[in-house]
């Protein structure tokens, strides 16, 4: 199924003209013609069934046939907070986590963070979030929050019903021991390549975070992020 | 913790001289000196504590101080069978799945497979399996099986106590409904980018495979493979 991201769409709109890369993809790659039916989301919770009414160079007219809420959003809000990582790792994480069903990305900086987020990387994260949205046929584009420094990050813990932190030194408790299956909103925290300091772990615990283990094998941060997201969504009943 | 892969090691060996890329990494990157202690695995279930006795250009002498079984292997055998995928996707999957704890990779070809496995890609898969082994501080290097054609692949189902197949059209059952927590050996099957045909799904079911869902959101094959592996290992109690 082809699925387009057209943020200009809203429930009030009956007809719209669009331009840009989605039109190029529609016409040049998928070879759509006037009269064809397509599906799109505005990334704000709505799905649209559309008919292509006309195609001009790089522009297409669309008529809204049906608006719905879609049926594929998870029942729980799961936000992912990865430390800023080196290279392109955050993009890998954002794309997979968006497919899985997260609602927010909350990048943060802790003392052992060595990666940097520049505008190019941020733009790339936004792009792959859109890719993940379209792959997964979702209707809600995850929000990418501004990078939080450590204290700002801790202050945010109270925005969520439950905060769980993947932590290498935790030996006893897995996801099922720290996350209730009926938690309405969850923040899943993944540290940087070098892990958290003991003081940071204490501060997160004091702020209400619960430490959990992903098993005795050491994981790359990007593997840990995707797996922790999946285990939390599964625990909440949103991966079946 | 630094961790080396030295397949020449075995429980009978007391001293050994090694050469090649592991030595370069040991000396040039990690700047080890004679007298330093390092840890290594032979990838066949054993972990070694070693002392560096001497360093020559590209060669190092090592003395075995202690041999153990390591403590980080999962308690269950989980094999991953991904369809041959396009580009470098199998390598991404092999590396993450190795970190997570799989015992085997069983690539197969079904009717909708469009990717190819050439010797370069196979070599790359072997390399990232070693990377995953070292990242995860494992002692067992997963076996990468030869590519199976469809009938050979089905014949292998009987090698495992349970075979589970991630399938987009399955709507009811998640991993927990198809996998018993005490299964000793499991094969986790992931289809190609275009999915399985109905006839293939029937054939897998007839051969004892159980279909399960990863939720209503469409996932890239590489995301599905890593997530399915994680959910199965978690179900077996091996990710906490």
From TrEMBL, chains A, B:
Protein name per UniProt: Ribosomal RNA small subunit methyltransferase E
Keyword Transferase: yes
Enzyme Commission (EC) number: 2.1.1.193
Family: Belongs to the RNA methyltransferase RsmE family.
Domain Ribosomal RNA small subunit methyltransferase E PUA-like span(s) in chain numbering: 18-59
GO biological process: rRNA base methylation
Record function comment: Specifically methylates the N3 position of the uracil ring of uridine 1498 (m3U1498) in 16S rRNA. Acts on the fully assembled 30S ribosomal subunit.
Main enzyme class: transferase
Protein's UniProt keywords contain rRNA processing: yes
């Amino acid at each position: 199924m082809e699925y387009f991201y057209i943020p200009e769409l809203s429930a009030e709109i009956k007809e719209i003209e669009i331009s840009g890369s989605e039109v190029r993809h529609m016409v040049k790659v998928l070879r759509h013609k006037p009269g064809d039916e397509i599906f799109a989301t505005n990334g704000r919770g709505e799905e649209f069934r559309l008919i292509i009414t006309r195609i001009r160079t790089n522009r297409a007219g669309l008529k809204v046939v049906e608006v719905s809420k879609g049926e594929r959003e998870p029942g729980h809000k799961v936000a992912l907070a990865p430390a800023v990582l080196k290279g392109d790792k955050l993009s890998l994480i954002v794309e997979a986590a968006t497919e899985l069903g997260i609602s927010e990305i909350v990048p943060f900086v802790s003392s052992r963070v060595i990666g940097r987020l520049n505008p190019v990387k941020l733009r790339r994260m936004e792009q792959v979030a859109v890719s993940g949205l379209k792959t997964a046929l979702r209707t809600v584009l995850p929000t990418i929050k501004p990078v939080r420094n450590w204290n700002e990050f801790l202050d945010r813990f109270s925005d969520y019903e439950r905060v769980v932190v993947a932590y290498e030194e935790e030996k006893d408790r897995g996801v099922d021991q720290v996350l209730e299956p009926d938690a309405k909103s969850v923040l899943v925290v993944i540290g940087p390549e070098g892990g958290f300091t003991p003081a940071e772990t204490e501060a997160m615990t004091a702020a209400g975070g619960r430490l959990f283990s992903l098993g005795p094998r050491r994981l790359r941060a990007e593997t840990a992020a995707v797996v922790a997201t999946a285990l939390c969504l599964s625990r909440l009943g949103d991966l079946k």
